[in-house]
Design goal:
Four Helix Bundle (Hemerythrin (Met), subunit A); mainly alpha; 72% helix; disordered C terminus
Length: 251
């Protein structure tokens, strides 16, 4: 293959990505089915406002966040700038949808006079949201905002990758905690009697874990990482790096 040709996509990668998308879409659909069949659906100005919380969190902090992490594996040969913008946009959409989910639960608690932030799920949820926001803000400042030097980006990149995967894993764990909490509140002692809602929710929990595992597996395969391209060296000289004296050859 010529030096300027596109890198070959690993044979198994498209199948694993497709499998992760099947899991993710099934997860979102089953969350909607659970809320529609057993929790009455979703309506903002009613007692059903709370149900917007689990749906928004699954769509935002699980499905969209997971897909944002996979962008650099899926779009291996596209321009780095385009891939970077798509990565950032997916995280923005996830953040906004998650914010709607947070507003839904806090507003519902306020209307009902319920206490806030007393459970392990709520503590983990706030931690995840704050970390996710800080991660996006710092990532934007380093990789999209015109100003960060190439050497500074290179030093921060490993931390950005680590915290991205860690926050995603925390998001999956927090969703599992919330699911279990909802089942105990809504079903109580009937949960142990294999109620249909409990069985459906257990399957939903397994889907959460499997989707998280599939995304993390794809991310941790070293041979599936996006190959370095000549175009990326040119991009490293953008945003004032020439005037700061950094050398792209040090990557």
């Amino acid at each position: 293959m010529e030096g300027g040709a596109a890198a070959t996509t690993p044979a198994a990668l498209p199948y694993y990505v497709a499998f992760s998308q099947l899991l993710g879409l099934t997860l979102v659909a089953m969350t909607g089915a659970w809320l529609g069949l057993y929790r009455g659906g979703i309506a903002w100005e009613s007692d059903l406002q709370f149900n917007a919380h689990p749906l928004c969190m699954v769509i935002g902090l699980i499905f969209l966040q997971g897909n944002a992490l996979l962008v650099y594996r899926v779009f291996r040969n596209e321009a780095k700038r385009t891939t970077k913008v798509l990565h950032g946009l997916l995280h923005i959409f996830a953040l906004v949808i998650a914010l709607v989910g947070l507003v839904a639960v806090f507003d519902y608690h306020r209307k009902k006079g319920y206490a806030d932030l007393y459970s392990l799920h709520s503590w983990c949820g706030i931690l995840v949201f704050v970390l996710y926001f800080v991660q996006w803000l710092v990532g934007f400042s380093f990789f999209l905002f015109p100003g960060a030097s190439f050497s500074l980006r290179s030093r921060y990149r490993p931390q950005h990758i680590f915290f991205g995967a860690t926050i995603f894993l925390l998001s999956v764990g927090t969703a599992l905690l919330g699911l279990k909490e909802a089942l105990l509140f809504n079903l109580g002692g009937k949960y142990s009697a294999f109620e249909p809602e409990g069985v459906l929710a257990n399957v939903l929990g397994l889907l959460l874990a499997c989707f998280g595992g599939a995304v993390l597996y794809i991310l941790t395969r070293a041979d599936w990482k996006r190959p370095s391209q000549a175009e990326e060296q040119a991009l490293s000289m953008d945003f004032k790096t020439l005037t700061e004296g950094d050398s792209p050859g040090s990557q």
